[in-house]
Design goal:
The protein contains 6 helices and 7 strands; from the N terminus they run αααβααββββββα. It has about 240 residues and is an alpha+beta fold. It has a 5-stranded antiparallel β-sheet.
Amino acid sequence: MAKKPASNGSVPSTSSPELSPHPLGPLSILADKEKFKQREQDVTKINNMNAFDLKNACDDALKRFLSHPELFRQNHIHTDVRLALGWLSVLVAFGTGLYGWKIDFERSKPVVWAGVILYVVLSIVQTLYAYFVERDIVFLGKRKTFDKRIVTERITITSQTTPHSLKPSAEKVSPCPSYNFTISYLRSASSGKSLLAKGKTSKPRPYNELFDEDGMLDVSVFETWVGQAVEDVMDGEAK
């Protein structure tokens, strides 16, 4: 993978919170050098030839950035549901095995069969939930602010790895995978009864522009890119 171009580390300027239609944005948070250094320390070296590892690294960096206390409060409902179903399956399997061990075979068969069926059902429900409900969602966030009334902002981000052709004008085109995240934004008041703004945008970017040849994520480039996309969709400027 080609080494990323050098970055001058500059951060786009943002308007003051008083003039902005929404509170302090991601790019303003990014400008905090001390907190940026802390996030940079959380980055680990990965195998930059493995698209699965690249995506997971980007997902983790995205969640760390947007769950900043001054940005959004992350909602872990999908993780909680999957964990609950998983632990329930484990308890059913353990209880069934323990019952079958303590009770003789013929007497325990009805209960063991019921336990096996329940375990299979729970496993299927967990798989279906992950596939049809959670899908590619990596971040659910919400924050409440007060601007003459209580305003609630919700953000949902999905991500996936998509094919990308690097330098299509070159004589030999070498495909490079791309990290693609989609942002859905909703701003409302009166407990969701009054819709103030909404937007949706998709932002792909080749992994070789985010990681160097040693497999290290450029946190400054990544967070500037994510922060700009989030602020664009919040301001209704997403494309």
